[in-house]
Task: structure prediction
Amino acid sequence: MKLRLLPIVALMLPLIAFAAEVGDVVKFDAPPQKVGRDIMQAFTNRKSSTGFSGRPVPMKDLGNVLWAANGINRPESGMRTAPSALNKQDIDLYVFDQKSVYKYNPKDHSMNLVVKGDHRSLFTERMKTPIIILLVSDVSKFAGGMGTEDDHRRMGAFDAGIVSQNISLYCSALGIATRVRASMDGPGIQKLLGLSEKQIPMLNHAIGYNK
Result:
């Protein structure tokens, strides 16, 4: 019996190694040029979900959501799908799931592991949600420019709102359920992710499928 298992184990070893490798860095395929409903249908069907099923979001769809939110749509200049105040590109996206927390890397269209474990309890989300996308504004990027610290926080909040709308419209176009919230354990999140006082959690999106 043991001898018969050896070939199977040998075949599984590369898969195990691959799983370990993609655990730290998740590389997404390039987003498609056309997908889902048109923009007017997306507006018509946009709504905040009130309940999520346990159905997982496919990795390719998660990558598309992140790209639509704040990915690079003009590689020659590094410009994003969402505008930002003074083009400071202050919004970072963190993905919380049942196993880990990742940070989206727009330059490589990938996610990098930040911390392991299920930390979704930091969000006051009463519904079971497969994925939560956190929007963080690094307002230190506005330093040395125009305005006061309060102005910088407002600019960061405006930028987060634009990214949030991108998420909502893309999810509507694809039939993915989402709900945007501002409630969360801000200090707990900053401690977990090692954020500075200038890196402010602004909004979070529950992502999944309706019951």
Residues 149-174 form the longest helix (26 residues). The domain at 28-208 is CATH 3.40.109.10 (NADH Oxidase). The radius of gyration is 19 Å. Strands lie at 25-27, 72-74, 79-80, 91-96, 100-105, 110-116, 131-138, 177-181, 199-208.
